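hey can u check if this looks right to u? its 211 residues, i copy pasted from the old doc so theres a chance i mangled smth
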Amino acid sequence: MRYFSMVASASTPGPNSKPDLTSQSRQHPHPRATGVRPTLPPFVDWPAFPFEGDLRIKPLQEPVDAEPPRRGDRQEQCAACHTPDSAYLWSNERWRLKSPPAPSGLPVVVILEPRAHLDLGDLSTMHAAELGVLTVRLERAIRSLESVAQVHVNRWGDGTAHLQQWFLARPAGYLQLRGPFMTMWDEILPPVEEHEWQMNLEYIAAWLTDD
């Protein structure tokens, strides 16, 4: 929670953007303390936080003895490995780019995957170097859209075993969407127009194709 608060405070400027670390009313016990429900963290009062009203923190569940397998841990069951190139926006010998199947609240959300069944820590030196170059190229392409102010780049390791690096565009002018809560806003906001969404995706695919 402390790490999340530091990241959110660094990326969410403006009024109430910095938590009051000296306030005893905001201090909460260690999350593993049994029978104690922690108090709400300071970021619930920040302008970027998408919810208001009465909120409660869920009690922390006991840790499991063994973690469950992730989706596609076995390559023969991996959805990405069995999806044809025609379902992707762009592809080359080692990488492919896709989008969610329908528009969401953000102007652009795209996902970069290696063609081979690899997670982040499995990448070869060549794959790692290419990932860096493609990350920069995609960020530039998305940020060059008039409707986009900034681009967030994320990787979550708990979903699928096949590496997915997400690129999420913050729409220009919407300062309330700054910071790590933007993924929540993406599902809260009404979807962008289908035509605009398709145009943005075609533009990004063309940018990658144009070497």
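The first strand starts at residue 90 and ends at 91.
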